Amino acid sequence: MNELFRPQSEGLSAWPRPKLDKPFKLTICVTQTCSMDCQLCYADCKNDPTQELSTAQWKQFIDELVDDNFLHIFFEGGEPFDRPDFEELLAHVNRRLYVAIRTHAIGIDSERAQRLKNMGVGRLYVDLFSAEPDVQDDLTGTPGSYKRAVSGIENALAAGIKVTILGILSRRNHENLQAYINLAEELGADQVGVLRLYPLGRAKQNWSELSLSVDQMMTALNGLRVPETVQLVQSWHPKDGNCCWQNAAVSPTGQSIGCPYLREYVDFGNITEKPFLDTWAHPLYQQLRDSDVEETCTECSATQGTLGGCRSTAYAFHGRFTASDPYCIHNNQGVDLHDLPERLLRKDT
């Protein structure tokens, strides 16, 4: 999730971003493995951890982040808890950084939830593709995944860990998106994040069955009724921000990739070969942070303080990092989001 900092800039075309010497937070994609077979997976998770960084290498990197005065670390995968040493890595953080985790939550029983709380985990982001049990189980390829995920959410909340329920907006859930909000309120989760479908990983192969038009997405989002106890987090017009300037990510094999949603499109260097902050200085990384874009949306720029929307989606559909984000109602430029460019579907891409 890219919601750490959302400036408000009424009347301005773009809020003046500070020049950072490091990102506000860093995502560690700690593993490429996952026990589920999700149709919407942007990582195309496998069950082969052979190329992943070792326990010692991740610990060394965590120490580097602490030494460089980072504040916030965000773990995701794959499924982080499918990595046998994941709790050992959390213990190594030892409250030196704020920790959040993205997970499908099916393995979080009450004992694990309490251990996570004791280790200082501040928030879980739980992927739930549908608030309808049969649809969730079908999309994950895992019978019982809905029930187990809800149980994991309940266990985390009972242990005092905050929970954000994440839904990926698709053809399978857009007509019943309100159910996410209702479920969050019922369980006591304080946030619901509605994410776009990213043209990456396994989701590319299922794109024609899952994708929506801009109008369908906006209709679903604009129809939501959000109670005061639940915060809705989303990145569609007029809150479509170019968040490259404040984020960073490292892949399971140690590649600095800027953002998990850029994992197939950029490589700024490997953290086992150079310090992370050296990769932060990569020319393309700097270009993405500078909001170097061809067109922008005035309303989104005024509320988000950045120009151009998501660079990953722009590059996926146009092949240029400076291109318009086709998920924006003003900058779509006639792109049919139901069809992916052929180059994205080639196995050598």
Structure description:
By secondary structure, the chain is of the alpha/beta class. Helices cover about 30% and strands about 10% of the residues. It contains 14 helices and eight strands. It has helices spanning about 55-65, 85-95, 110-120, 135-140, 145-160, 180-185, 200-205, 205-210, 215-220, 275-280, 285-290, 300-305, 310-320, 340-345, and strands at about 25-30, 70-75, 100-105, 120-125, 160-170, 190-195, 230-235, 250. It has an eight-stranded parallel β-sheet with strand order 7-6-5-4-3-2-1-8, with helices on one face. Helix 3 (about 110-120) links the parallel strand 3 (about 100-105) and strand 4. Helix 1 (about 55-65) runs parallel beside helix 2 (about 85-95) and helix 3 (about 110-120) crosses helix 5. The radius of gyration is 19 Å and the shape is globular. The chain starts with about 25 loop residues before the first strand and ends with a helix. The model is unreliable at about 1-15 (pLDDT under 50).
